[in-house]
Amino acid sequence: MGKYFRANHLLTIITTGMGIALFLYPFLFPELVRRFGASLHQNDFAYSVTGLLIVCLAVMLYQIQAEKLDTRMVALLGVLIAINSALRFLETAFPGPAGFTPVFFLIIMVGYIFGGQIGFLMGALTMAVSAVITGGVGPWLPGQMLTAGWVGMSAPLARFFVHMFHGEGKRIEVILLCIGGAFWGLFYGLVINLWFWPLIAGPVEQSWQAGTDAGTTLRHYLTYYVFTSLIWDLAAGAGNTLMIAAFGIPTLRALRRFSQRFSFQKTQPEGIWTGSVGGRGHET
Amino acid sequence: MKREWPDLHPLTWLLWLMAVMSAISTTRNPFYQLLLVLGIMVAGEAAGRSRSWFSPAWLGMVLGISVLLSGLFYRYGNTVLIRIPENIPLIGGAITAEALVYGATNGLILCGVLVAFALFNRKVSYAVLLRWIPRAFYPLTLILSIALTYVPVTIRQFEQIKEAQMVRGHEVRRLRDWLPLFLPLLISGLERAIALSEAMMARGFVKTLPYSRHNTLFFGGFLILLAGWVVGLFPDMGLASGLLAAAGFAMMGLVIWKIGRNSQRSVYRKLAFSWLDIIAAVSLAPFFLPLILRENFPVEMSYSPYPQLQLPPFNPVVLVILMGLIFPALCGARDD
C-alpha cells in the first residue's frame, strides 16, 4: 500500500508538471523548434496540447477517484459542488466588483480542510457542472477544469505556514488563506489566458509571434495581460480576499466539524463474530 | 407548427459539432467563415428559439471589437486607409485594410466557435453528456449527477433562507450581511450530504476501485503516450511518435473499457438512430475532407490578406457543402 501511495504522488507530480508545461507551450514551442528542430506545425502543436490537457485531466481524475472517493466523499462533493455552482447563479447578487466570482472561495476552503486531492475534484467538477448548467461547455472547459483543480489542490499548502505560526483556528490562518485567495484570483486569469493567447490577434508587442525567443514571448504576454486582464483579475483577487476575510472563520469551523463526521472509520472490537449466519465466518 | 420527425441522435449532433470545428480550423477565408457563421445561425433558428441563443447584434459586437482592435494595433499591410498621428501612444500609425480583414477573420472564427457550441449545448441534454463519460469514471459521474440534481434544490433553499432571515428583520447592506444567508445554506447542505451518504451506504453503494494491475497499466499507458508526444517533437520521428502514442492510448483505453465493464448502468430512455441520422451524417461527411486530403483537397481553402489585400477566392462548391450544416437542425424537433 505504501508503494501505491508513493507511486500515486509521483504520478500527481508528473501529471501536474505536464499540465503546467502544456499551458506554457507558447514560451516553450519556439525554443523546441530552435534547439531540436521540432517537426510539428504550430496548428498541430496547439491541437496536440489541447488533447494532452484532456488526457492529463483524465489521469488526475482517475487517480483521485481510485484513491479517495468513498460513499461519504461522493455525497459530500456532490452537495458542495451544487452549492458552489448555485453561487455562480447568485453571483450577480453579491456586492462584488466586475471580475469578482464567489466560486473560488469554497474551492479554497474545501481544499484546505479536506486535502489537495478533494480540493482538485472540487475545483475541476465545479467548473464542469457550472458549464453544463450555463450552457458553457466548449473547448475552453478542460483548461478551466484543470486550473480550477489546481486552485483546490494548492490550498493545503497554506497548512504548512499555519503550522509554522501555530495559527490553527486563529486570525493568522484566515490571513494566510486571504493571501492564497488573492494569489489565485490573479493567477487563474494569467494561466487561463495562456490557452487562447497564441490564437488571437492583437498589437505586435502583445501578440504571440512564431520564432521569437522565450524572453520576448514572456514580455509580449505580460504586456497583453496587463492591458487586457490585470484589472479584471485584481478585482477577482480582491473579491476572494474579501470573501475569505468575511466568511472564512465560520466556514472553516463548519467544515472542520463536518470533516470529523465525514472521516469516521469503522473499527471492530476483538472477539466479534464477522461471518454470516450459516456461512464460514471467522473470529477476529 | 409541430414537427412530427424524431429528433436526431446526440451522436449526430456531436458529429455536427466536429464538422463545424473541422471547417473552422481548415480555412481563414473570410467568405467561407462568414458563410459558416451564417449557416450555424440559420441552423440555430431552424432548431427553434431559445433565450440562450446569440443575437445577431451580439455577434456583430464581437466582430466589430475584433476588427477595431486589429485595425488599431496591427501595423502590417500595404493598403493604408487612415494615418493616426504617430505621437499618440499605442494606436499611432497607419490603419491598413489588411489588418481590418485579418481582424474580421479572427472575429468570425470566434463567433463560429461560440455559436456552434451554444447550439450543441442546446440540442444535447446534460443527461446525455453524463452518459458519454466512460463507465470507469462512474464515481465522478455520480458526483456530477448529484450536483446537477441538487443545484435547483440549493437555489430554492437559498430563497427560503433569505425569506426566513427577512422575516427576522435581516437586511443585506454589505458583504458581511451575507453570512447569515450563506452559513445556513452550507450547513444544511453538509447535513444533506451526510443523510445522502448514509442512504447510499444503506443501498449497498461501495467503492469498487481497489488498487490493481489495471491502474499500473493505465498509468503506464499515460507515460508511453507522453513519451510518444515528446519523441514527436524531434524531426523525422513521426512514425515512432505515432506508434508510441497509439500504444499508450490503447493501453489507457483498454483499462477504461475493462474497468467500465464491472459497473452497471441503468438506461431508462434508450436513444435510437433513425434514417434521418444517416442522412445527416452523409451530409456532414464532406466537412472532414479538407482535414483528410489536406493539400489534395480540390478547393483552395487557405487565404492571407498580407502583404497586399486581394479578394478571397470563392468556390460555389463550398456553399453546397455548407448546406449540410443546416440539414440536421431542419430535421430535428424544435426547442419552442
Task: Summarize the helices and strands and which ones pair or pack.
The complex is a heterodimer of chains A (284) and B (336).
Chain A: H1 2-23, H2 25-36, H3 42-68, H4 71-90, H5 103-114, H6 116-133, H7 141-154, H8 157-164, H9 171-196, H10 214-228, H11 230-262
Helix pairs in contact in A: 1-3, 2-10, 3-7, 4-6, 5-6, 5-7, 5-9, 5-11, 6-7, 7-9, 8-9, 9-11
Chain B: H1 10-26, H2 30-46, H3 56-73, E1 80-84, E2 93-96, H4 97-123, H5 126-132, H6 138-167, H7 179-202, H8 213-231, H9 238-262, H10 275-284, H11 289-293, H12 316-331
Antiparallel strand pairs in B: 1-2
Q: How would you describe this protein?
A:
The complex is a heterodimer of chains A (284) and B (336). Chain A is mostly helical and 284 residues long. Chain A contains 11 helices and no strands. The longest helix of chain A has 33 residues, at 230-262. In chain B, a hairpin with an 8-residue loop joins strand 1 and strand 2. In chain B, helix 10 (275-284) runs antiparallel to helix 12 (316-331). The interface between A and B is large, with 72 and 80 residues.
Stretches of chain B where pLDDT falls below 50 for ≥5 residues? none
- Overall pLDDT confidence of chain A: 81
- Domain module count of chain A: 1
Sheet-strand content of chain A, in percent, reads under 5%
User: How many H/I helices of chain B?
Assistant: 12
What oligomeric state best describes the polypeptide chains here? Answer: heterodimer
Written as H for each helix and E for each strand, in order along the chain, the element string of chain A is HHHHHHHHHHH
The helix-strand sequence of chain B is HHHEEHHHHHHHHH
Question: Given the C-alpha coordinates, what overall shape of chain B results?
Answer: globular
Radius of gyration of chain B: 26 Å
In total, how many domains does the architecture of chain B comprise? 3
What summary fits the major beta sheet of chain B? 2 strands, antiparallel
Q: What is the global morphology of chain A?
A: globular
CATH architecture assignment of chain A: Orthogonal Bundle
Largest interface: A-B, 72 and 80 residues
Radius of gyration of chain A: 22 Å
Protein structure class of chain A: mainly alpha
Poorly predicted ranges of chain A (pLDDT <50, ≥5 residues)?
273-284
N/C terminus separation of chain A: 22 Å
Look up the CATH topology of chain A: Arp2/3 complex 21 kDa subunit ARPC3
